[in-house]
Amino acid sequence: MNLAAIDLNLLVAFEALMEERHVTRAASRIGLAQPSMSSALRRLRDLFGDELFLRGPGGMQPTDKALALAQPIGAALEQIRGAFAPGQGFDPSTSRRRFTIAVTDYGDLVIVPALVALLRREAPGVDLAVRPITDAAAALAKLERGELDALIGGHLPDSSTSLRQQLFEERFVCIRDRNHAAGSAALDIGEYAALPHALFSAAGGDGLPSAIDDRLARQGLKRRVAVTLPHVVAVPFTVAGTDLVATMAERVARRFAESAGVAVLPLPFESQAFAIDLVPARRALADPALRWLVEAVARAAA
Q1: Residue 107's closest CA among 48, 62, 59, 156?
Q2: Which of 48, 73, 134, 247 has the fewest CB atoms within 10 Å, counting from its CB?
Q3: Residues sharing a CB contact under 8 Å with residue 47, sequence separation 6 or more, in sequence order
Q4: How far is the first Cα of the chain from the last one, in angstroms, to the nearest whole number?
C-alpha cells in the first residue's frame, strides 16, 4: 500500500466510529458534518476492502476486520499525536474526552458512583460510558482490542498483555431480614446451612458449587438455594421480610442494608478476602488521559 496516498484523517474517522458506534456522534466527536463522516466511511471501506461497520439494533457494529484494525490504528494515532505534542499532558478540567469502561455489578454499585462524582467535580467535559461485564473473558478481549479503556471488578481473568492494579480487598458477609436477626448477633454454621438461601448469579444457573459450598461440605453440611437472582441489587430486597439468608460482598450489603431492611452479619466461618481490581488498557502507559483515568479510579475507590 502506498502510504503517500492515504489520508490520515480517515484513520481518525475510523477511531471515532469504533468508539462511538454511531455515524452522527462520531462526526460530532471530530468536528465533521454527518455527510462528511458518511463519505469517510465509504472511503474507509474502499481502502480496507471491508464493510468495517454494519448497522445493527445497538448501533454500528464493527466487523471482524474492524476489530482487528482497532488496536494498531489506535496505537499509530497515539504515536502521531505524541510526536506533535511532546510532553503535553492531559487537562481534565478542559478535556472533551470520552472514556468507555466495563464493570461488574459490584463495580457499578460501589465504584462508579464515586468515579462519576469525581468526574463531575474535576472533569465536567469528560463523558463516561459504562458497559456491563457479563462475560469476563469477552470483556478482556475487548480491552485488548482497544474497544474498552478499562475493566473494574472482582475475579477478573489474568492477561499477559494488560495491566492490573488492586484497588482494595473485599470480603463476604451474611445478610438476613432485620426482624429475623433481632436478638442474635450471628448465626452458627449449622443454622447458616439450614436456612434457605438467596443467591446472586450474573451468569445464570444456580451458581453452584462455590467456595462457600466447598467450605460447608468439609463440615458435612449442604445449603439449599431457594432463590437465584440475576442482579445483585435485588438480593437484599428479596431477603427482606422473609426467612432467607444470603451471602454477598460487604460493601454492597452495607450500601443497601438500611433501605432494604436487612441486617449484616459475619459469616459463621473464615472466608478468604478477594481483590477488586482495575485493569486498564496497556495503551494507558503512553496516553496521559488514560493515566489520569487510572489515577481517578484509584482515588474514587479509596
Answers
A1: 156
A2: 134
A3: 6, 10
A4: 49
For 36-76, what is the HEC assignment? HHHHHHHHHHHHHCCCCEEEECCEEEECHHHHHHHHHHHHH
Which of 297, 258, 262 has the alpha carbon at shortest distance from 277? 297
Extract the C-alpha cell encoding 182.
433481632
- Cα–Cα distance for residue pair 80/11, rounded to 1 Å: 11
Angle formed at CA 24 by CA 7 and CA 127, multiple of 5 degrees: 100
Per-residue pLDDT of the chain (302 residues; tens, 9 = 90+): 666 677 889 999 998 898 888 899 889 888 899 999 999 999 999 999 999 999 887 778 899 999 888 878 877 776 676 666 555 678 999 988 889 999 999 999 999 999 999 999 999 999 999 999 988 888 988 888 778 899 999 988 877 667 789 999 999 999 999 998 776 668 899 999 999 999 998 766 565 678 888 889 999 999 999 999 988 999 999 999 999 999 999 999 999 999 999 999 999 998 889 999 999 987 777 788 888 999 999 999 99
- In sequence order, which residues have a C-beta less than 8 Å from that of residue 110 and are 6 or more positions away? 249, 251, 252, 255, 276
Nearest C-alpha neighbor of 187 from the set 198, 175, 199: 175
**DSSP, res 101:** E
3-state secondary structure of 103: strand
Query: Model's pTM, two decimal places?
Result: 0.69
